[in-house]
Amino acid sequence: MSDTYARLIALLDGVPYQLIDHAPDGTTETVSALRGHPVAQAAKCIILLVKPDKRTTKYVLAVVPGDRRVDLDAIKQLYAARYVGFADAATAERLARTVPGTVLPFSLDPELEPITPR
Questions:
Q1: What pTM was computed for the model?
Q2: 1 pLDDT above the threshold of 60
Q3: Do the strands 83-86 and 112-115 form a parallel or antiparallel pair, or are they unpaired?
Q4: I need a surface site. Which of 20, 57, 102, 103 has the fewest CB within 10 A?
């Protein structure tokens, strides 16, 4: 059991939930079908690199409904950034503390700021 998985289960202690184990899958449609709910009820979790200026880099966790796309221009405006793009796989795994397809809709790393659509 990974540390991230163990922390998630510990956070859920005392809360009723149903555990549906499945292989990591980056496809919201596939995972929604496994869980038996519409794609719109899923949380798509994407780690982004934001550069407000040439010297500053920050990372954000964009959490959007499963049937929506991350609006990079809106995030660029939100941070008054020069650049917004997807984090590379190694950085995303380090910050999420898990592999793509299993990214949680909240952050366990202080360097990763969660944001949701308005």
A1: 0.85
A2: no
A3: unpaired
A4: 20
**CA-to-CA distance for 90 and 70, rounded, in angstroms?**
20
Length of the chain: 118
CB 56 within 8 A of CB 28: no
Taking the alpha carbons of 84, 86, 90, 95 in that order, is the dihedral positive or negative? positive
Q: Which two tokens stand for residue 57?
A: 């880099």
Give mean pLDDT, residues 102-116. 89
Q: With contact defined as beta carbons under 8 Å apart, do 63 and 42 qualify?
A: no
Q: Where are the beta strands (DSSP E) in the chain?
A: 43-51, 58-65, 83-86, 112-115
Whether residue 74 contacts residue 67, with contact meaning beta carbons closer than 8 Å, is answered with: no
What backbone torsions phi and psi does residue 3 show, to the nearest 5 degrees? -60, -40
